[in-house]
From TrEMBL, chain A:
Organism this protein belongs to: Thermalbibacter longus
First and last residue of the signal peptide: none
Domain Thioredoxin-like fold: 39-113
UniProt-recorded name of the protein: Thioredoxin family protein
InterPro entries per the UniProt record, alphabetical: Thioredoxin-like_fold, Thioredoxin-like_sf
PANTHER family cross-referenced by the UniProt entry: GLUTAREDOXIN-LIKE PROTEIN, GLUTAREDOXIN-RELATED
Length: 150, 78
């Protein structure tokens, strides 16, 4: 049973066809569905996130999905600063790192779609002054935005 | 969007209801809550300019600028 409705799939297919420029990779740190459940390592939303990302990737040949088993790539995950799953890392023409921790449902799904487009194009709707300030930052900075699904 | 524009920025959107220990660690009682480098935090959405100023206040202005020479990035625009 698909998570996205037919109407959503149609809408997103058209949006991706129109707005995606260069390829984008969705790297998903998750728990593979076939994996035996290990007490203490259960991931409540990994299955749903896996399905949702697979559906998204199927809507455009510019979206590549890389599914990584968190427990088998712990070192790589640690290097990326990933400590929780599901975790989505977007790769394209973005200069910094764009990540989603937890299932991107509700309003965050819209944010993910917007970010996919921006990462594919390497542009954002930020004001010129904001872009100038960000381009001159002296030190690395970690921004965390905490949300709940609504 | 800020992380798309700057190689200095790592931006995480964290769905916190799945991770109670994170909610506890960052004392999250309302969302959205924004934490910048574990040092600066605020609740609720901010206008773009104020958000960018907050990031600048933590990550600094131009690297070649002497500290204090340019105070435009104070970030206290609340």
């Amino acid at each position: 049973m698909a998570i996205l409705s037919d109407a959503d799939r149609d809408y997103l297919s058209r949006l991706f066809a129109e707005r995606l420029a260069d390829p984008v990779k969705i790297r998903l740190y998750t728990q593979k569905l076939t994996q035996l459940s290990i007490p203490g390592y259960d991931c409540a939303t990994c299955r749903e996130t896996n399905e949702l990302m697979e559906e998204l990737a199927s809507l455009s040949d510019k979206i590549e999905l890389e599914l990584l088993d968190f427990l088998q790539v712990r070192q790589q995950a640690a290097q990326e600063g990933i400590t929780e799953i599901p975790a989505i890392v977007l790769e394209g023409k973005n200069k910094g790192k764009v990540r989603f921790i937890g299932v991107p449902a509700g309003y965050e799904f819209a944010t993910l779609i917007e970010d996919l487009v921006d990462v594919s194009r390497g542009t954002t709707g930020l004001q010129p002054l904001s872009r100038e300030i960000l381009g001159k930052l002296a030190r690395p900075v970690h921004i965390q935005v905490f949300v709940t699904p609504t | 969007m800020m992380a798309i524009e700057s190689d200095k920025v790592t931006a995480d959107v964290v769905e916190v209801s799945e991770f109670p220990h994170i909610a506890q660690r960052y004392r999250i009682y309302a969302v959205p809550k924004i934490v910048i480098d574990e040092t600066l935090e605020f609740e609720g959405a901010r206008p773009e300019a104020a958000f960018v100023a907050a990031v600048e206040s933590v990550a600094g202005g131009p690297a070649e600028t002497e500290e204090g020479a340019s105070s435009s990035g104070d970030g206290r625009r609340t």
